[in-house]
Amino acid sequence: MSGAALRMPRAASARGQVHAVAGCYFVASFAALGLPPYLTEILPELGDRDARWAGVLYIVPTVFGGLFAPLWGRLADRYGRKRLLLRAQLGLTLSFLLAGWADSLPTFTVALILQGILGGTFAASNGYLGATLEGPALSRALTLMQGSARAALVVAPIVVGSLSGWLSPHRQYALLAVLPLTAALLLAALPEPGPAAQESESEPATIPEAPPTVSLRALYVLEFAFVFSTVVSFPYLIAFVDERLPGTSPLLSGVLFALPHLCYLVAALAVHSAFHSRPRAGIALGFACIALGLAGHGGADSLAALIAVRLLLGVGLTLGLVCLQVLAAECAKGRAPGGLFGSLEFFSKAGAVAAGIAAAVGSARFGPTAPVLTGSAAATVTALATLMPPLNRRTRWSR
């Protein structure tokens, strides 16, 4: 039997694992992404009448998730990626059950801390995939994983809002704990990942591998800058829309919030095909579109203008996310994937926390327009930095 014939079943099996992991991540993300926007409704039930702690508790899982992600990644490399992926899903189950049955603010806070410490399903899923695939196959799988995250971010708050007429968002934590538990049962059927494989239709050629487009340190910087420049506009976007278009319905505001993420869902795979061989150009173009899109928010005073700048932001979001996955897949070659993706998750969470703080401070001092302009400035600086030689290892090595 030819080598190509042997690789076809393996490639099909790898694709099945990718779809299973991405589907389970989508399922398990519902409570983690759908319930935090309702903290202002949950906290009064726990004694915080004015929901003063909503802003702090919103980032508690993010902070602890980022702090513990590198540790879980290293443990996955040592004790098995599947085992640690199951641990993450079961950890979410436990923390959601505790949050749903909490009857005091301290207990609920402990549940959110445990969610951050025991969760980490995204990094664990990427570590599993990184041990199974490499090259374009891995970057395409990571692109699909980001699609699962974006889909959950769009769908989950809508589902939670629809269920709130029958069950309070607070108690939905306990109900939705069944989702990561189900994901864990499904993932238990997957094999422990073997040697990484590439999807290829031809015999592998003995061609020396090119060095990664960027260094690992530069990848971490880009991840932090990307998350900061995009997330900084999220917390106060609804207030910004209300300021620019008074009387806007909550549904329309929600659609405007979701537009960039919908762009990713529609165009991510096409962008991957176009830029997987030139990620540096894609990441620079992505940051440029983010900078222009966020800056455009400052002058948008009509619905058409807001739609246009949100779509431009979506283009940048899609380019940036896809090309970051390509760069991560390049850096993963020859490295332990658990540690790499755990560390990458740390810088992603750090960017989100910094963005939340910057958005809160800027909005309080200068109004809801400040966060989008802050994000635009950060994206502009990063876009210019990506064009400079220090970010490019090939340029540095050729000297």
What does this structure look like?
This protein has helices at 3-34, 39-42, 54-79, 81-101, 105-118, 121-132, 135-163, 169-176, 178-187, 216-231, 237-244, 250-275, 279-297, 303-332, 337-366, 370-386, 393-397. It is mostly helical and 399 residues long. The protein has 2 domains: 3-187, MFS general substrate transporter like domains (Growth Hormone, Chain: A); 216-397, Growth Hormone, Chain: A (Up-down Bundle), CATH 1.20.1250.20. Helix 4 (81-101) packs antiparallel against helix 6 (121-132) and helix 15 (337-366) packs across helix 16. Residues 1-10, 198-207 and 391-399 have low confidence and may be disordered.
CATH H-level homologous superfamily name of the largest domain:
MFS general substrate transporter like domains
In which range does the helix fraction lie?
over 70%
Number of strands: 0
The largest sheet, given as strand count, sense and whether it forms a barrel, is:
none
In CATH, the topology of the largest domain is named Growth Hormone, Chain: A
What is the helix tally? 17
CATH architectural arrangement of the largest domain: Up-down Bundle
In round numbers, the mean pLDDT is 85
- Inertia-based shape: globular
